[in-house]
Amino acid sequence: MRDGFRVFDADTHFAPSVESLVPYFDRDLRAREAELAQFTRTRKYGRAGQVLTKSELRHYYSFPKDKGEGWGGREPRRLGEAGPREGEERPFQTFMGERQPTVGAEDHDIPARIREMDEEGVDTQLLVTTPMGGHQDTAVELGLLQAHHRLVDDVCSAYPGRLTAMISFNARLSVEDNVSEIKTWGQKPWAVALKAELPLDYPLDHPDLLPIWAAAEEAGLCIAHHSFAAGYPGYRDLWDNPFIGRTASHPWAAMRAIASFMGAG
After folding, report:
1. Per-residue pLDDT tens over the stretch 97-133
2. Class of the 8-63+102-226 domain?
């Protein structure tokens, strides 16, 4: 609370690691845990750029997929220079707080997250959840999405009124499976929005998606968009620069979404 107003942070990330997610696997996905181990990668940096110690390292699934998806899949080019610098990696953003967030606050250390919310004076956060995905087998995709939602439910339900989140849907899965996830979690107090995960050239106004929008409306969910390096208009024509991509992505995609919905009626 600040000056009599509740403070709502509408863009905070939550990226559970394999270690956090595995306990929420169903029987079928747990039976494939050894198979999935080949896709495990170690993350050496926190989401705020913190260099992690050996005891802080966590693991994430990285499934084979096409490279070059927007500026996130290529070497970055600095504005004003002819091309990318050889071997240069994209630097982390400049964080403006007095100190970096606690390692694990975006994953397994939720009490630390709440303490930092109190320190910042934030009453409620919206978690931008990031389900792991990209496996060729949609049964694995569905299992990971379901496990993710179970974990999000436990995390948010432990702190009612403090943590809210979005339900994710994945257009690679069947409409029935996506609707089932919305019906399972849509009435939870923490569920405030539906986040679309659409492949390239899959329009929001496609008639196959009508049952999903109907389920979202029935649950009282708004529809949210969150861009990254791909998935919005023109993402392949940004001259390999993250600054241009981040500046253009959200408003560009939002304008396309509004035109799509209004035009489709």
Report:
1. 778 889 999 999 999 999 999 999 999 999 998 888 8
2. alpha beta
